[in-house]
Design goal:
CATH architecture: Orthogonal Bundle
InterPro entries: Tscrpt_reg_Rrf2 (IPR000944), WH-like_DNA-bd_sf (IPR036388), WH_DNA-bd_sf (IPR036390)
Keywords: DNA-binding
Strand content: 5-15%
Structural class: mainly alpha
Organism: Keguizhuia sedimenti
Shape: elongated
Number of domains: 1
Distance between the termini: 45 Å
Pfam families: Rrf2
CATH superfamily: Winged helix-like DNA-binding domain superfamily/Winged helix DNA-binding domain
Radius of gyration: 19 Å
Protein name: Rrf2 family transcriptional regulator
């Protein structure tokens, strides 16, 4: 299975915010877009969706930004991907006529594989994704961005 760009961006944002939200200033769309080389318009859509779900708190205005709105150890990666990917099946057997549809076992095998994929990811939380060097790197990235923006202010 391959996750969509939407989910990839969503996971990166959540991982980044899980550490950057602990700092004195919130992260911004521009910051995250620059840190991960993501198009701002894509990022805005993803952040908007995650704010509606309740994972992110977005504040408008000059001192605004985005912060994580949930505890990182309560947000499971499988749940995140289920939400961001939607509940689509891997194969749509009803989309076209198939001579095998009466006796085909492919759909159930793919469903079983997808369930195993999500079950495996449910064992990991956002906190797990930022353990060790990853979390330390995010803190350094955010602090460097803040220092740079203070120089231009």
């Amino acid at each position: 299975m391959r996750v969509t760009q939407f989910s990839d961006i969503g996971l990166r944002v959540l991982i980044y915010l899980s550490k950057a939200s602990n700092e004195r200033a919130p992260a911004t769309i521009a910051e995250i877009a620059g840190q991960f080389d993501i198009a701002v318009n894509h990022l805005v859509k993803v952040v908007g969706h995650m704010a509606r779900v309740g994972w992110i708190q977005a504040t408008r205005g000059r001192n605004g930004g985005i912060r994580l709105a949930v505890e990182p150890d309560t947000l499971h990666i499988g749940s995140v991907l289920r939400e961001l990917e939607g509940d689509a099946e891997l194969i749509d057997c009803n989309a076209r006529q198939c001579s095998l549809s009466q006796d085909c076992r492919l759909r159930s095998a793919l469903d079983e594989g997808l369930k195993a994929f999500y079950d495996a990811l449910d064992r990991y939380t956002l906190s797990d994704m930022t353990a060790g060097g990853t979390g330390e790197k995010i803190v350094r990235m955010h602090r460097a961005f803040l220092q740079k923006s203070l120089q231009f202010a």
